[in-house]
Structures are given as C-alpha cells and as structure tokens.
Backbone:
C-alpha cells in the first residue's frame, strides 16, 4: 500500500485559536491525520489516530525525543550523534533506534515516551504566535503504527497544569469582582469525560452556579493563582474545551468563537497580517544581488572559460534550486520574493550566455550576442525531480512506502539520469522492494552501484552496496565496501561498527 497523500484540512493562526483548543476540537471530532504547529524556526507535528495522539516528532531539539533525553541527562552528546547517524543512513523511528543501540531498555520505553509526550505537549500549549495546519490522509487511511496512544483530552489537562503561569490566570486577577464565570453546555463533551480531581470538580460546580471570580476565590479560600495553580489550569482547560465561559473585562484579548462547525476556519477568523520580511535576510539577498551584478557570466556561475557543458548546467541548477520563482513559498514577503527573482534572473542570463561551447568562447572574448529566449533551460522538470528525490529519501529513512519511493526515484532518474545520487538511491529502493523476491535483482543493483560509484564516490552508495553484500553473505566484499565508506567519511559510525563486528566474527 502506498503512502496516502496529505491534504491540508484545517489551518489557522495561533494568535487566534490556542493549541489547546485545536487539540480539543480534533479529539472530539475523532480525527486521523497529522497536526503541525509552526512557530518561528520550530515546527512540531502530532500524529493523531481517531482523536488520540499516537506520536510526536520534530526536527527541533526543543520538541523531539532525542532533545528531551539530552536535556534530562539520559543521552550524551556522542550518543545523540550516533542516533542521528543511524537514522540518516537507515531511517526508522527514533524509539526503535534508541533500543537497537542499547541506549534504552525495552521496559523503559513506555515510561520515557510518556514523559516526553507530556513535556512536549506542555511546551506546545504555551505557543501564542505561529500557525497550525491539520493534514488529513487522502485515499485509504494508513493503519496505526504505534502500540501506544495518548488520550488527547487527558494529556492536554495534564500539560496545562505544567504551564499554569499562563497569562490567562494573571489577567483574571486584574478585576476579580468583575470577572464572571458561567458553565456551558457542550454537546460533544461533559465534565465527566475529563475525570476531574475532587478539588477541580468543586471549582467547576461553583462555576456552574454562576457569579464572580471573587466569590469563587472566597469559596475555595484562594488568595492568588499561585496558591492553587492546578485548579486554575483546570479552569483554563474548561474554557478551551468550551465547558466554561469567562467574561473578564480587563483581559487583553478575547479568543473569538470559530465559524461554522468549529473546524472550517475562514479568512475572517484568521485575521492574518501580511508577512514581515527579516531585515537581515533582505540585507543578505541585496548584497548577493549586487555582487552578481558586478560579475561577468563566468563569475556569476563560479566557472572558468574551460568549463564543459555539464559543468555549466550543474552550476546553474545549483543556484536555480535556491532562487527559482517556483521554489519561493507563496507566504514569502514581497521584498524577499522580488530579490530572489532578481538573483535568479541574473543567473539565468549567465546560463544563456554560457550554455554552449560556442557561446562560452564568445563570452570569453567579449559579450555574447544573439542569445534568444529559446536558449533558456526549463528548470521545472529538474526541480520536480529534486522534490520527488527528497520525498523518496524521506520515505526510505522512515522505512515505509518503499514502493512509492521506488516510483518517485524512477521518475527522478528519468528526468535527470546524470545525477549519480538519484541512481544510487533508486537501486537501493529497488533492492529493498524486490531483492528478497527476485534473485536477478542482486546482480543488477551491484552492477549499477559500481557504475555510479566509479563516476563519483558516494558515502551512502558504498554503505548501501555493503548492505547488499552483507545480506547476500559476501562478507569479504562487504568488508571492503565498509572500508570504502570510511575512506570517504572517517566518522561514519555505522561502517565502523559493522567492521568491528566483522572482525569479532573472524576471531
């Protein structure tokens, strides 16, 4: 079964709809998909199955399991590097890698993962700037991959207690005699669904009676939010879960109600401001544009007059991938978009002037005249091939969607067969998908690996070839291939470990 397409279903602004409310709404709707929160440079994704949280992942160490274990002293920096190296080379889940490297014992997994999920959720609940998107799976919904699931509602309640210093609480105390509580009837959720503690339930019952915050404080004998942060965290959750309304005149901002069924947000709900350009990025791009303007076509592409056709195309594609208009996000600020388009135009003009040997000769002796629009290369197929290649690498690293990865790599190779890395990964995917079933595949992929590696030494190419030899029982060739890996990348932990194991077997 191929990996389903991800379709953006609900999206919004965290300044308008809080993370707690987003999680609640997806939970009660029993949604299955991927919820991504993005704030600044960080992005964290919740994998949800039927409304429950199944997994959390992020590249940011603030929100991933490796970063959490490093901060809590369970991992050393060297072990972090080992984990990343193994995952870069072979993919798979972080938790499986930690167990396979004996960093975690099997019986420790549940405890550590429970703690990690609670800590990350608490961190996410504090996000007040950024955006969220919930992606549904197109076509057939993939089966659950994790034996562990976290009840979303309970998890949010527990996480809220960990961040009870939220400004919501402080705002309430500006005018307790004018802050009114009222219980709400929510057809999708009841107070019993949250399994409240006795003191939490008492606070809610008092809110049900209506009245002012000052009355609630007196009944609970609370002088300040710091006296009973757990209760106020629970009240915050009740408001986010739409079981409680809070009318606080002195609050800095009211969270508006959502349109429609509470999931389909309109542009009016989001109130998004135009994206603001980073002054440092503007300065950097402006400097690059001015630098290129002062260079001749050879200088713009970093080439000499003796460059071959392939060198010119390779240099052009390298820059085009970064600045081509098709690669600029729609959300990019107008100033950034304009600068990148200017840079791409300068590079494209250089390519037009140097595309053939005749043009390069003319450019070396003076301006190359007579260049037409027909000489500009169409970069779009190359960019599409690169996108398919990157998607395929992600699938292979995750150890899933091998057939889809193979199809993507087939397209990438057909579009740009001169790219050695595409061919290396294509043959690795072919081996993973067909090697166990078709004995002729082995001979084919070995020959293809060797041909590609003769053109350009490649760390993962030798690593993949070594794995093919290892699976086939050709230990001597396997050992030689792992040694080739270390010649290219002396710090490759996988190759070093495999060679040590091979040496032990010999003894």
Residues:
């Amino acid at each position: 079964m191929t990996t389903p397409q991800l379709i953006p279903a609900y999206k919004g602004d965290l300044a308008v709809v809080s993370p707690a409310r987003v999680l609640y709404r997806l939970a009660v709707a029993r949604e299955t998909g991927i919820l991504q929160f993005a704030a600044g440079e960080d992005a964290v994704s919740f994998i949800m199955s039927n409304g429950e949280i199944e997994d959390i992942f992020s590249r940011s160490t603030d929100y991933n399991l490796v970063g959490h274990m490093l901060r809590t002293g369970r991992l050393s920096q060297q072990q972090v590097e080992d984990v990343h190296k193994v995952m870069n080379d072979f993919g798979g889940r972080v938790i499986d890698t930690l167990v396979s490297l004996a960093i975690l014992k099997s019986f420790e997994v549940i405890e550590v993962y429970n703690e990690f999920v609670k800590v990350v959720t608490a961190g996410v609940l504090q996000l007040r700037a950024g955006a969220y998107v919930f992606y549904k799976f197109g076509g057939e919904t993939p089966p659950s991959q994790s034996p562990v699931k976290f009840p979303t509602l309970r998890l949010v309640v527990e996480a809220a207690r960990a961040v009870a210093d939220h400004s919501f609480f402080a705002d309430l105390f500006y005018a307790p005699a004018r802050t009114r509580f009222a219980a709400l009837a929510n057809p999708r959720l009841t107070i019993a669904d949250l399994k409240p503690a006795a003191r939490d339930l008492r606070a809610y019952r008092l809110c049900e009676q209506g009245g002012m915050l000052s009355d609630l404080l007196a009944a609970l004998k609370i002088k300040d939010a710091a006296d009973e942060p757990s209760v106020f965290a629970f009240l915050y959750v009740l408001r986010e879960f739409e079981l409680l309304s809070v009318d606080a005149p002195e609050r800095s901002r009211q969270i508006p109600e959502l349109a429609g069924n509470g999931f389909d947000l309109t542009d009016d709900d989001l109130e998004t401001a135009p994206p603001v350009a980073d002054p440092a990025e503007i300065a950097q791009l402006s400097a690059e544009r001015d630098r290129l303007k002062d260079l001749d076509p050879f200088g713009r592409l970093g080439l000499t007059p003796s460059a071959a056709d392939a060198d010119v195309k390779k240099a052009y594609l390298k820059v085009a991938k970064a600045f081509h208009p098709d690669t600029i996000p729609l959300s990019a600020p107008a100033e950034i978009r304009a600068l990148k388009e200017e840079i791409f135009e300068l590079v494209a003009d250089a390519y037009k002037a140097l595309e053939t040997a005749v043009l390069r000769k003319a450019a070396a002796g003076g301006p190359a005249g007579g260049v037409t629009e027909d000489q500009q290369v169409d970069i779009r197929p190359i960019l599409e091939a690169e996108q398919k290649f990157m998607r395929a690498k992600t699938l292979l690293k995750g150890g899933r969607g091998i057939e889809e990865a193979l199809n993507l790599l087939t397209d990438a190779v057909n579009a740009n067969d001169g790219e050695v890395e595409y061919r290396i990964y294509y043959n690795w995917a072919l081996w993973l998908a067909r090697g166990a079933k078709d004995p002729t595949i082995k001979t084919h992929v070995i020959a293809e690996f060797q041909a590609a590696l003769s053109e350009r030494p490649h760390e993962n190419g030798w690593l993949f070839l070594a794995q093919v030899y290892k699976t086939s029982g050709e230990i001597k060739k396997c050992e030689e291939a792992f040694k080739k890996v270390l010649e290219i990348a002396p710090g490759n932990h996988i190759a070093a470990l495999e060679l040590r194991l091979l040496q032990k077997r010999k003894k």
In short: The radius of gyration is 29 Å.
